[in-house]
Design goal:
The chain is mainly α and about 60 residues long. It has a domain of about 45 residues. It is elongated. The termini are far apart. About 0% of the residues are buried.
Length: about 60
């Protein structure tokens, strides 16, 4: 039980004294970059899905005739 207490105390000390936390503006800027990247990736995947759907539906339609 002493090991758990020591671990928790060490973890708390490290998080409060040794970790460099980003400022609010840095956090907002990084969140905006992540959100924009997620939207771009989603658009790319959606476009790839649309193109493959059109191509494969045409191929399957022609095979079915």
């Amino acid at each position: 039980m002493e090991n758990i207490k020591t671990y928790l105390q060490s973890s708390y000390e490290e998080l409060t004294t040794k970790v460099t936390w980003p400022t609010w503006k840095e956090l907002q800027a990084n969140a905006a970059v992540v959100a924009i990247a997620a939207v771009i990736i989603a658009l790319i995947i959606g476009l790839m899905d649309l193109v493959s759907n059109i191509l494969f539906s045409d191929i399957i339609y022609k095979m079915a005739q």
